[in-house]
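Re: [help] complex structure
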Amino acid sequence: MTWYLVRRIGQAIAVVIGVMILTFILVHLEPGSTAKAVLGLKATPARIALFDNTYGLNRPLPVQFWLYCVHVVHGNFGISYVAGQPVSTLIAQRLPRDAVLLGLSTLVALIIGVPMGLYQAIHHGTVRDDVIAGTWFTFYSAPDFMEALLLIAIFSVHFHWFQPAFPGGITSVGGIFADPSALVLPVVVLAINSVAGFSQYMRSSAIEELAQDYIRTARAKGLGERLILTRHLLRNALLPIVTILGLSLPDIVAGAVIAEAIFNFPGMGLLFWQSALAHDFPVMLGATLIIGIATVVGNLAADVTYGVLDPRIRHAVA
Amino acid sequence: MQSPDGTTVVTPLGVPAGGEIAGAPASRNLVLDDFLRNKRAIGGCIVVLLLVLFCFVGPLIYHVNLTNVNLDLENLPPGPGHPLGTDEYGIDILGRLMQGGQSSLELGFAVAIASTVIGSLYGAISGMIGGVVDALLMRIVDTLLAVPTFILLLICASMFSLNLATIILLLTVLSWPYVCRLVRAQVLSLRTREFVQASTAMGSTRTRILFRHMVPNTFNIFIVTATFAVADAIYALSALSFLGLGPPPPFADWGTMLTNGVNDLFDSYPWEVYPALIVLVVTVLAFRQIGDALNDISSARSSVR
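Output below.
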């Protein structure tokens, strides 16, 4: 296990460095110079030279990359061209709100998806299973914004039950709770996409476990079906879900960009979208770095948790 | 059974002439048989065919103004002359659907083919070479997989000016790593099989093994991922256009038509939202169905073997 952990962490560090190289390359692909972008097109050559000197932009590329790494480690992601604020401040304001949104929607998705996958597995091969699988396949395949538009059409335009969007100008983290009815639709949209994945993985994992000997043993010794399902099947079938949780992070983030753009949710996704429209590169690259590191850490955590939860894995790799 | 001079040799009790036992037909035909018998696959293919006809043959029959803004005709509900109504510039929705579909389908097929070819070759070569080179090549792939494709797409869309060609290039660059992972895993398992070892023992070069044994044996992965890649690429373009970051006009695709979706719903112009939404969902679903069916067929085949 220790050796496996060391190797796995080594790989993760390599990928984090890779993500930093990638964002560094992207910074330098940016058309035009950073100095002109910050100082404006009318900047004099002297001011540009001063700017380049101050920020080390006239140094050799390897030195610049080293400086970039040092800045990132110190939490300095540069200054937003548009807001004029440090990127780290902008991101720090929004990350907790995303934790709320993504946490809530993932929780809802698990509460619906896990029992549904289990139900499908128990009834697999029947019409009920096919209908549920077909429905989720449609939701899973359909673009994220389709669900958002349909939900708005039904619940905001027709029934006026929920707010279709958040009001602008929310500054505090708690501001997103000011009107809880605005929070419903974004959470539901993000949850729908995750439920599809969770329930189908849960289904195939449970079908596999149902065929195992220990289930037959439990039945043979006369254990009640309810106990077999909750005590024996659920625990084992849940294992792959842990991995899926870690691996689905990039999809969840991408979905969040679209959902936040539609519902005007003041999180990282909305910030990212607005920065993309305004060509605000420092914000985009800072956010990308955070998302990339979060993905790597998520995958690592999923792998390690899996090893801790499943002794078979632990012994196989030790 | 045909004899060398072309006449049919009738043998008693159906025993083949020469007494040989008829071999199993080539596996490619078996896969094709399974495919033709699979209702989902056939259904998906029919839908895709209809879509191609709709987008590429449709405009030849249905002539309509798609270039000039005509504010007299703005936001007309479906009716005579405009079967699906008009949008906020007075442009016919049915005509735009066909035009938008062309770019979506072209992009989907181009990206699918390019990214699966590049991904397969990269994965196969990396898996064949192994060792430090493989580890290095795979960390590059891991890096590209660590950042969500859509995020990188948004950055590039914001950085460069886009047209159909550049967006095909961009999506290809961003989507090959997924194929690469799958193909490499397959190559790693193939490398230890007897027929590859036999080929090595007979003195085959690495290049020969790569193209003679590895590439044909990863074909099922290739075809499944390519089908999913069509759906993913069409979806990515529509999401990009939906967010207002797609190629500028006159480029049009289904996502562009949905950019004002929420406002259109509130202004009660539902005909400006639903047609594009339905066509988009049907397209993506059709390709995913085919991919899913192909996946079932190829995994059933390999488990039988």
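Chain A has a mean pLDDT of 79.
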